[in-house]
Amino acid sequence: MFDKILIANRGEIACRVIKTARRMGISTVAVYSDADRNALHVEMADEAVHIGPPPANQSYIVIDRVMEAIRATGAQAVHPGYGFLSENPKFAEALETEGVAFIGPPVGAIEAMGDKITSKKIAQEAGVSTVPGYMGLIEDAEEAVKIAGEVGYPVMIKASAGGGGKGMRIAWNDQEAREGFQSSKNEAAASFGDDRIFIEKFVTQPRHIEIQVLCDAHGNGIYLGERECSIQRRNQKVIEEAPSPFLDEETRRAMGEQAVALALAVGYTSAGTVEFIVDGEKNFYFLEMNTRLQVEHPVTELITGVDLVEQMIRVANGEPLSMSQGDVKLNGWAMESRIYAEDPYRNFLPSIGRLVAYKPPAEVSEPARAVRNDTGVYEGGEISMYYDPMIAKLCTWAPTRGEAIEEMRVALDSFELEGIGHNIPFLAAVMDHPKFVSGNITTAFIAEEYPDGFEGVELSGTDKRRVAAAAAAMYRLAEIRRSRVSGRMDNHERKVGSDWVVSVAGETLVTEIAADRGGATVAFSDGSTHRVSSDWTPGDSLARVEIDGRLMVLKVGKIVSGFRIRFRGADVPVKVWTPRQAELAALMPERLPPDTSKMLLCPMPGLIVKVDVAEGDEVQEGQALCTVEAMKMENILRAEKTGRVAKINAGPGDSLAVDDVIMEFE
Q1: Cβ pair 208, 229 in contact under 8 A
Q2: Most exposed of 284, 550, 634, 649 (fewest Cβ within 10 Å)?
Q3: Looking at residue 14, what DSSP letter applies?
Q4: Which stretches does DSSP call E strand in 463-603?
Q5: HSE of 187 in the Cβ direction (CA atoms, 13 Å)?
Q6: Rounded-to-integer distance, Cα 215 and Cα 427, Å
Q7: Rounded to two decimals, what is the model's pTM?
Q8: Which residues lie closer than 8 Å to 318 by C-beta, 6 or more apart?
Q9: Which helix (H) or strand (E) holds 188?
């Protein structure tokens, strides 16, 4: 077995590989850029080597710099993680020349399957059903429009070397094909150093289901079930689960056997993933093969008990697989939520900055439940503009799908994250969505269910009253604490009453609280009551409250005369007053936000790539105004209504913060 491996990656996947290597008794080497000098993967590794400036194309994807780190540390093998150099055949060749083991597939397999155009041709030759499209190289936007018209709209414009949603656009007409081709080409060049583009038919209402395969160098290959990856936004996976709620055993076996046959046909070794589009009749079509470890691999590990990183290391060491297909058993259900540094209230645009608070739920592994959090950040650390915005992968496991979803709901409610915008409220909302709970989902789920973006969650009537009851009991407890402050004057003790008025989400509720040693009974003026018990202490940012026998995990922030409560995707201020305070509060004028309706504000920290209009131009609704680049993605900002440009405040090359004014309108 290897004594030392180098992880040619960063963030959570580097930390994930280090954990398995440590368990196997293998020492590890981390590499890092200037931006990652204080990163968690650097701290966790036994050694760390600096490889360059923050941009990935000057550090993490520079083969020579990684090779220098290998030579300097004497690493015998390299795990590439995902992204960066993981599917770069030149990197695998460089390692082979150096006599260093690549913890991944052979160069030939990477070249054959890593290129989407070539892989589709091989799949077709092997008799695998593929989606109709144009596999040749496309020279310019006009040719892309011509081909798209021949294939038939809608079409998917994709980077040949792409992955992770980069360099990918859906076009429904000529204009979108023209714009999408150029944006995909630019993103592909920036992210992968390869700007080749191809076009295929976009299958409407599809499911995205992938098969995990594992092959050794001795001709053995197995599949470890499937992962349902249909919950996607901008072609990037957001929530994954294993197994799929859609497949039956017959379809699973057919897809698995086909995936293994394809892998063995190209001499594949190590862990890999064959992705399929599956329609409503369970017809499946080969999409692509990822010749690396997938981001969502933990859900497969949770239902099979197989450590995929360990298997990759053992295969790279020349060992045969220790299991056969008959040994693979799928046990229970697993969910994964990708927690991103992006603001769901701003159309999921990237958010960067410092993690003022980072307190994930405790990881557990029990016979009836499990919680796992794969991460590469820590409290006080910074989310950089240079890399992917993923903060963590929160995973849960339980015997059934319903129980796994409930575990995820509680885990998301328990995840404390402050300082940046993040998508936890959106993830929580999906976990409660009836369509998701039913398992009746497609890759169009987010677009169909949130067509106008995410605007938060409105509490149900029952939950609103439960939150009100909890807030009232908690506020009374805090008032009792404040009334006992030391240093008060004699004979000036303040009595805390039992009558309170709670204002939550536009509803005012009159309550009376009867407290005892076991908790409090909160009675509303209509005669309904709620029993509340909790070990919450004033000042705690998280409250585990049992209300009428139901556990509710509330994020609690202090505001004047109440709390900011976040629960199941809802974010509501809850005011708690004495009856007299409520009378006076009703007389206070409402503070209105400033009018920004005639301004184009920068929705995220980013760089202006180009401005499409000039001062004095008349613009139409939906017209492109400018392009902002952030987190390796180009974002086209469009006019929300017809108007005339009065002033432009920023130009190409300018770096802007959130809400900086890009242009103003008459």
Answers
A1: yes
A2: 550
A3: H
A4: 499-504, 507-516, 519-524, 529-534, 542-547, 550-559, 562-567, 570-577, 599-601
A5: 29
A6: 34
A7: 0.84
A8: 217
A9: helix 174-192
The angle that helices 308-316 and 297-304 make with each other, rounded to 10 degrees, is 100
Question: Catalytic site residue 382?
Answer: no
> Cα–chain-centroid distance for residue 33?
23
CA atoms within 13 A on the CB side of 530: 24
Q: What is residue 593's DSSP assignment? A: P
Inter-residue contact 375 to 393 (CB < 8 Å): yes
Q: Is the pLDDT of residue 490 over 80?
A: no
- Per-residue DSSP letter, 628: E
**Whole-angstrom distance, CA of residue 74 vs CA of residue 60:** 19
Q: Which residues pair with 214 in a beta bridge?
A: 222, 271
Q: Where are the alpha helices (DSSP H) in 571-661?
A: 579-585
Question: Under 8 Å CB-to-CB from 347, ≥6 apart: which residues?
Answer: 453, 603
What single letter denotes the amino acid at residue 266?
Answer: V
The token pair at 233 is 């936004």
Residue 223 has pLDDT above 90, yes or no: yes
Q: How far apart are CA 426 and CA 435, in angstroms?
A: 15
- pLDDT exceeds 90 at position 190: no
Of 504, 334, 335, 348, nearest in space to 426 by CA: 348
Question: What is d(CA 538, CA 558) in angstroms, rounded to the nearest whole number?
Answer: 9
For residue 130 the two structure tokens come to 């593929």
DSSP for 240-303, please give it.
Answer: EEES-SS--HHHHHHHHHHHHHHHHHTT--EEEEEEEEE-TTS-EEEEEEE-S--TTHHHHHHH
E strand or H helix that includes residue 426: helix 424-432
| Lookup: tokens for 16 | 């994930």
Query: Phi and psi for 527 in degrees, rounded to 5?
Result: 100, -15
Which residue, among 411, 395, 404, 17, has the nearest Cα to 239 in the 3D structure? Answer: 395
Q: Alpha-carbon distance 294 to 289, whole Å?
A: 11
Alpha-helical regions (H) of 484-586: 579-585
Q: Which of 176, 200, 226, 288 is catalytic?
A: 288
Residues pairing with 524 in the sheet? 511
pLDDT in tens, 106-155: 999 999 987 777 888 888 887 777 887 887 788 899 999 999 999 889 89
Q: Do residues 355 and 379 make contact, with C-beta atoms less than 8 angstroms apart?
A: yes
**In whole angstroms, what is the distance from residue 328 CA to residue 322 CA?**
11
Q: Rounded to an integer, what distance in angstroms lies between the CA atom of residue 605 and that of residue 420?
A: 11
Percent of the chain with pLDDT over 90: 75
Query: In degrees, to the nearest 5, what angle opens at C-alpha 324 toward C-alphas 321 and 327?
Result: 120
Backbone angles phi, psi at 532, to 5 degrees: -120, 130
289-315 confidence digits (pLDDT tens): 999 999 999 999 999 999 999 999 999
